[in-house]
Amino acid sequence: MYRFLMTRQWVILTLIALLLIPTMIRLGIWQMHRYEMRTARNDLVSEALHAEPVPVERVTTAGHAVTRTEKYRTVTATGTFDTADEVVVRRRTNSDDEVGFHVLTPFVLTDGKVLLVNRGWIPANGIQTAYPKVPAPPKGHVTIKGRLMADETTAASGIKDLKGLPDRQIMLINSEEQARRLGKEVLGGYIQQTAPEPKGGSPEQISDPGSEDAPLNYAYMIQWWLFAAAVPVGWWFLVRREVRDRAEAAAKESVPEAEPAAV
């Protein structure tokens, strides 16, 4: 009854089913790892954002590489903005996906060390090669607050660190590169300023990182495993249908033809 399973068509179909099952199980495991990773990331970000602000020099020092647990931590700093050495970061978008610049201003602390401050986004308002009009930061001695961020690299961001850019324009925010440019002691990483808010809403402050959609990965994980479970069920359904169709065909062939009636 089941000899048809040894035909070329059914051998190929069975092999495909046997390959699909472990493949779908692995895809489900991959989505499970993605879910765990995103959940852990969301927990770290939430914990950092809701932690009490601390002085920046308690978290980072010159040459320090900001860690995953330190990233997004709210820090405070007191000093003065150095607009003479201010630069803009090219090809950055705002919440509406408009392309412009991030404004990176050195912030000189009371002890003379420098903290890099991303003051927010401004529109290009013309060709990208021209230095844009940048709103001025608060003057004099001020206290600022912001989220601590790790140095940007091409490997982490996917942004190429292009050379030969127009004057006072950069591609990546990197404290080591800025320390060489400024010739000063620069704290590792940088901050995204959150307070005080800029006058007139410009530069446009960078929004909170938000949370990644971890439940979506959980749903994909369940989906792949349900698909894996459905493959053998579907294969057995096709086998039973083939057996039934062959049995019906055999029954029709075994019925004798009626003899013609005598005249």
TrEMBL record:
Membrane-topology annotation of the record: Multi-pass membrane protein
Listed transmembrane segments: 218-238
Keywords: Cell membrane, Membrane, Transmembrane, Transmembrane helix
Similarity remark: Belongs to the SURF1 family.
Family annotation (Pfam families): SURF1
Coiled-coil residues: none
Protein name from the UniProt record: SURF1-like protein
Superkingdom of source: Bacteria
Originating organism: Streptomyces pseudovenezuelae
Subcellular location field: Cell membrane; Membrane
